[in-house]
Amino acid sequence: MFEVLFKAINEKVTLTQEEEELCKAFFIPKKLRKKQYLLQQDDVCKYTAFVEKGAMRAYTTDDKGSEHIVQFALEGWWISDIYSFLTGEPSIYNIEALEDVELLLLTRPKDEEMLQKVPKMERYFRILSQKSLVAMQRRLIGSLSQSAEEKYTRLVTTYPDIIQRVPQHMIASYLGITPETLSRIRKQMSTRK
């Protein structure tokens, strides 16, 4: 069950066999079925989760009942409400399985213990944090300055798997556009090809 995790880690830092075995002890394997929640809004986020298999989404719901998707996570990705995880404050997000998933969960205490016992993991998470910050800044700039078509094109180019595995209305929510706008964009793009 740890194949995808160690492949992802070893792309950033190289762990020895002993370090990998030590790391395994800190994770809790968890399976969820499609539409089950890892986290619900107003609960405290107790885990940061690595997706070994399947697809997840993190979203919030506004006062009008509209969903706003902030993250997708496929195999090899992490997902959590990091603010709630670190502070113990209630979460503003729901984290739901879009497919049957296999996860590896880390609690805050186990995360801290792992970072102390396997120092390379500290470097791994620092690299992930830096990449995440860059991605978040690019997404913010894109949402402020790009057209709906440009946002969609970037998503398709950067994450082609998401387009195949996630329903169109959720992709529209992630891009901050209506499903009708996304449908129109897809139609216009297909006629240009």
UniProtKB/TrEMBL annotation:
Pfam families: cNMP_binding. Residues 1-123 form the Cyclic nucleotide-binding domain. CDD domains: CAP_ED. PROSITE patterns: CNMP_BINDING_3. It comes from the Bacteria. Transmembrane segments: none annotated. InterPro entries: cNMP-bd_dom, cNMP-bd_dom_sf, RmlC-like_jellyroll, WH-like_DNA-bd_sf. This is cAMP-binding protein. It comes from Segetibacter aerophilus. The lineage of its organism: Bacteria, Pseudomonadati, Bacteroidota, Chitinophagia, Chitinophagales.
